[in-house]
């Protein structure tokens, strides 16, 4: 029976072999893109960090620098993303959303509104490590009004993480949400922002179920009738991710497909962000909701080496 030390030594030797395989793929005239795809897809994110370290030791070069000199476009973007720790990759997407004229609120919503408290803490740490500015300060400078308050409340990482709940509290909170929205003229946005940013996933799922039972309407319908524009999208994203992240990301892929703007980048970002988390479930949800496979989407909508990489990623699951 193998000891832990033996397993570790075997994995280290394998990572060295893979690192040298990347060097072979980029040696001489031309680049072996198929080898790059095969090697980068075969391992998880933790192992790819080991491969990067081995490459630097064995060749004296940063693997990402050599890749940048050999490949380009969305294919390069996808390969580099796969070699980036998830929290740093998502931090870079947020940073890109902040720069330029105006913010890309949809990208901010996709990331900030889909996180648990622990995931938010990791994201904030990565953002500060990369850009030397607190994520909450960045949000404060970019987003005002109710949407900004929601973003900052979620980014505070103060959501309860308990798995149980008090029935009396759930009943009162459900009534409070009704009274703040459908039960009055106008809407008290702060009540919704507080509940959706502070209550635990267990509490919120209980609230959503009781809201439908008491008022005969899905909570998502209530939000759609009370809010509009980006604030509505942010609140709905939060609710959907509390209920089922695979279902949310399947819907997001289809939404981006229908919009047709930057779909290649949107798709690669979503698939790579979720590949070590719940990609098999997203694949299943997409097929169930839209009666077509994600492989079919990639076959018809994506070209070149990016297409081959994404197909290989989907085939893995």
Automatic annotation (TrEMBL):
Q: Identify this protein by name.
A: Annexin
Q: What would you give as a GO molecular function for this chain, any one? A: calcium ion binding
Q: Which family does it belong to?
A: Belongs to the annexin family.
What the entry lists under Gene3D superfamilies is as follows: Annexin
Q: Is Methyltransferase among the key words of this record?
A: no
Q: Which InterPro entries match?
A: Annexin, Annexin_repeat, Annexin_sf
Q: Which Pfam families match?
A: Annexin
Can you quote a single GO CC term? vesicle membrane
Q: Which SMART domains match?
A: ANX
Keywords linked to the UniProt accession: Annexin, Calcium, Calcium/phospholipid-binding, Metal-binding, Repeat
């Amino acid at each position: 029976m193998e000891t832990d030390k033996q397993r570790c030594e075997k994995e280290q030797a394998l990572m060295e072999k893979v690192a040298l395989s990347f060097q072979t793929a980029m040696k001489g005239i031309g680049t072996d893109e198929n080898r790059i795809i095969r090697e980068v897809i075969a391992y998880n994110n933790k192992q790819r960090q080991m491969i990067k370290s081995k490459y630097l030791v064995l060749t004296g070069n940063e693997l990402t620098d050599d890749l940048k000199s050999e490949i380009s476009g969305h294919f390069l973007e996808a390969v580099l993303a796969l070699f980036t720790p998830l929290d740093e990759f998502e931090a870079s997407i947020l940073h890109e959303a902040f720069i330029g004229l105006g913010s890309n609120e949809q990208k901010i919503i996709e990331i900030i509104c889909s996180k648990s408290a622990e995931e938010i803490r990791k994201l904030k740490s990565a953002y500060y490590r990369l850009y030397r500015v607190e994520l909450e300060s960045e949000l404060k400078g970019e987003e005002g009004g109710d949407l900004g308050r929601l973003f900052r409340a979620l980014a505070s990482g103060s959501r309860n993480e308990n798995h149980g709940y008090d029935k009396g509290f759930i009943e009162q909170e459900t009534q409070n949400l009704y009274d703040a929205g459908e039960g009055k003229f106008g809407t008290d946005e702060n009540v919704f922002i507080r509940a959706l940013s502070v209550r635990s996933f267990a509490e919120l799922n209980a609230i959503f179920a009781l809201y439908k039972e008491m008022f005969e309407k899905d909570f998502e319908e209530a939000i759609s009738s009370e809010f509009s524009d980006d604030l509505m999208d942010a609140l709905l994203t939060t609710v959907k991710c509390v209920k089922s992240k695979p279902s949310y990301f399947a819907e997001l892929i289809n939404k981006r497909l229908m919009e047709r703007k930057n779909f290649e980048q949107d798709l690669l970002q979503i698939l790579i962000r979720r590949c070590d988390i719940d990609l098999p479930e997203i694949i299943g949800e997409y097929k169930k909701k839209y009666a077509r496979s994600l492989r079919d989407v990639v076959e018809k909508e994506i070209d070149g080496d990016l297409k081959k990489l994404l197909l290989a990623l989907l085939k893995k699951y």
